[in-house]
Amino acid sequence: MFENLQINRSSSQGLPLQFAEQLKLMIRSGYFKAADKLPSGAAIAKKTGLGYTTVDTALQILSSEGVLERTRRGTFVKASFAASLNGNAIRRIGVLFWTNEEMNSLYKRKALEGIGETLQAGGAEPVLISIEELKRASPDWWDFLAASTEYAGFIIDKEMTYTQEVLKLDRLCAVPMVYFNSIVDTHIGKRLFILPDFHEGMMKILTHLDELGHRRIALFKRTEDGRPDRVKEIAFSSFVLENPEGNIQVVGETRTTIEAAVDRVLAGAVRPTAIICATDIIAFHAIHHLQSRGLAVPGDMSVTGFNGFDIAEVNDPPITTVKVGIREMGRLVAAKMLEELAGIRHTQLINLPVELVVRGSTAKTN
Question: What confidence tier does 225 reach under pLDDT thresholds 50, 70, 90?
């Protein structure tokens, strides 16, 4: 079965990546066909002389690329990949995230729903790619993706846009690329970027709180240095220039770090009358910790969120937030990718409008 396996152990390309390519060649040649079940990882390792970890990592790579499907019953060749080898090829679009954890966040799941619906309606298939997993097999993963003939285009998530590796992929890649939820400043006018207008959203919140009489406001921003957080911070900083008692707290999105940030602002020399949170999740935990400390929201402290998740609507009190059309953004990203595949080139920046939703977590200051 693997008699003609060609593995170069002295190559800079990792063994798992080399073996993954060999398996794809076997599928292309027709040795393995759609829905065929592969031997177990242990059986392949014994037959090839490769380590079990090497084989398992290769199978993980091919699973993340949409070539294989791994289930409790075994590992199978995906029918959609086999179909892409014939004249009625399904165009496969790589959707790049840095980690599996990012793919599974509520924000990303909503965006992926929109991306998947629209791509599939246009005859394309989204393939989720975890760079963290791919990187284990080959440090030079951008070379691998740029040289791959498996993908008709790439959609790049915001967390990916701040790595030099992605810029290397961008330079090498000959297929369309669409960035969503962020911007690479050096590539404005060269690629398509689609993201919510985070600056407008922050200004809507600040205007709302200003009309309620709030001047002492704290911003709870996330620890990550992503574009959305930086834009929100820039907008907030313009407010602080006129209201020096405003302050910024860096928090994570875990309950412990958010509670610690609440305790810091409550213990400060000048207690804020309102807290702006970078996400609805942060706002949710902040409100519940304030309540556990005996403070009323919004009576003693107004709190706002950002994104417009369901949790903001069902919380007690319901959370004032900025609604971002996340699923709609995903649909637009996919639609523009389909246009790129049809030869329509896009190189603009698209800022999507956002909506302030006023609920019960904000009120006039005392």
Answer: low
